Fold:
Amino acid sequence: MNFPFRFSISLFQTASRLFAPNPSTHFSIAHACNFTTKPYFSTSTNPSRIAMAETSIDSLKGTLAQKRASAEAQGQAVRALKASGASPSEVESAVNSLKALKVEVEALSKELNSRVSENGGGNRDDFRQGVVNALERRLFYIPSFKIYRGVAGLYDYGPPGCAVKSNVLAFWREHFVLEENMLEVDCPCVTPEVVLKASGHVDKFTDLMVKDEKTGTCYRADHLLKDFCKDKLEKDLTLPEEKAMEYKRVMATLDDLSGKELGSKLKEYGIVAPDTKNPLSDPYPFNLMFATSIGPSGLSPGYMRPETAQGIFVNFKDLYYYNGNKLPFAAAQIGQAFRNEISPRQGLLRVREFTLAEIEHFVDPDDKSHPKFKDVSNLEFFMYPRDEQKEAKPFKKLQLGDAVKKGNINNETLGYFIGRTYLFLTSLGIDKERLRFRQHMANEMAHYAADCWDAEIESSYGWIECVGIADRSAYDLRAHTEKSGVQLVAQEKFAEPREVEKLVITPSKKEVGLVFKGNQKKVIEALEAMKEAKAMEVRANLEAKGEVEFFVCTLGQSVTLTKNMVSISKEKKKEHQKVFIPSVIEPSFGIGRIIYCLFEHSFYTRPSKAGDEQCNVFRFPPLVAPIKCTVFPLIQKSEYEEVAKLISKALTRARISHKIDITGTSIGKRYARTDELGVPFAITVDSSNSVTVRERDSKDQVRVSVDEVASVVKDVTDGDSTWTDILSRYPLHSSYSSDEGVLIGDIHSKS
Ligand code: AMP
Structure:
């Protein structure tokens, strides 16, 4: 919700990746290679091919550098010849040599660029395409309104996608709402303007946009500039060092550029509309909220909410009361959010309607300790504190307790939610080697935020912000208090009254008015707003000299105050309670992004036994798998089908989602079909009293009695037993089909 700088897939990340080495890359490849025959993002399956390609790229680079140096020297020689008044024929022959060298430099550059893209380019795209094809074919998701050619940035979840999403949300509720006794609410998506005016969204929830001057197609200005710099840095290997540094600097400071600065950079680099090469308009702010009006009159403006958080803030008073007027407490909300993204790209990652799961944890600003912090303080995972980013150091594993103790993370409560988020994501199946927590740079954070960290997951699109965890101080409740006039505050009653020293500033309206006339109000407001140190300085000057120069920012000038205009003192008072606006710590989960990254981290391919095709598998843990188990009669035989139906009933009673497949398709094909849906267990009925249970990734099978099988599958899907436990409890069974490597003849002897 950090809207002044709302680059969710952080531009900084791209820049920092270019500046800093990425220690996790080798993990990504190694990890995926445990399972895949098609490596994840690697440049080639064959190490010697990679080595060869890299060697020839290196030698090409060397030759190019030599040729460039020769061309530069020849250029100097031409200039020297001309300056010395050499004969025209001498100059002409030197110029011809220079031209020949330039042609060679050009050809070598082209060759180098094409070698690099052959070697490295495309693999991430190929991997992504494989995942997306499987997801679309198996209806995990569907482009919305497809029969009408769809709408960019809108997607439907199909049956398995819906099941995964509902499992992720159920686990989110269990992991956060249940664990912390959070107060869950469910507020409308349609929100009156006044609420979003108070929160700042009406004025500031914008991205800078440019238009193709001829076709009117819109683009995000910062994306065009970022793409240009990234392209140059990645593809133009002949880029001079100073230019490369300049592009890196532009990328690292994109967030800071005003519309005007962004516009002049686009012009300076000659950036045009990517699709048509037409000129672009100057950048201008575009508000991302979908506007609507509430009721038929059209007089009551509203918006589709861009986040769920505001619904919680405006209910603070009632929720605080419901909680027995006690802090800290947290409220939570799961719901749709709407952002009219300018040019949505990156598939499910940047969409126009998405599900957010948000927590607002209200806490005393003077005490941000957390009683359960010790439960997570020993966790160690990748963190990328601001200072490490500034120095272009790689991110590394830190212990959470240390990061809070050293002040990398602002406070225990923020640290607690970072730790809980790490546990949440890794339990879902996010690879911990491709997960990092990155602290916002000062220029990324809203001015009021005390600290902010993003959980970023590495995918084929790069590092993606999936969860934002921010200490937003008292900003939101203060803004709604001011706009609504309703005090969104908490009180803490003291056991014993406390003596406190209070600053008392009493301006004399009469004296100020006599001197400053129409500016009386502004001067008085400035006096009342003085902080203690300033007030003491003014008092000391008035006492010593009788007058003082005092700057009134709303007037933009200093005025001369005299002693009779204001009295400043410190008074001791007894207080029975403290009244304050709570701070809020906000973890905000983009559910769609988490699910997409989970799809990528779970996907692998393996060859069929015959070796003639690749089978897709989603390695979902049972917790998120859309269906936990399949039931297959081995062959079409009524006796087996009856047993399958009995097992299905027992699974339903045990609340295990499952699917019966009684088609006559070969068992290997049926396994492959459900592996592609990520179903972790398959029960195959091959007799009337015992069946086999197959685990998806190892393809190991055990033999279990018909009566027991539902409870065995329940145990292992609920996490009460592991598959290793099951292997030690039940006899191993060799598999059936040629795909699975065992003879069909074996089946009949058992039936
Ligand atoms: P923000 O309020 O901008 O910090 O966003 C909160 C979370 O919502 C982010 O961490 C993302 O996971 C998610 N998110 C933001 N914008 C989009 C979008 N256009 N499409 C999908 N998810 C998004």
Q: What stands out?
A: The two ends are 61 Å apart (CA to CA). Confidence is low (pLDDT under 50) at residues 4-55, 741-751. The chain has 27 helices and 29 strands. The first helix runs from residue 11 to 19.
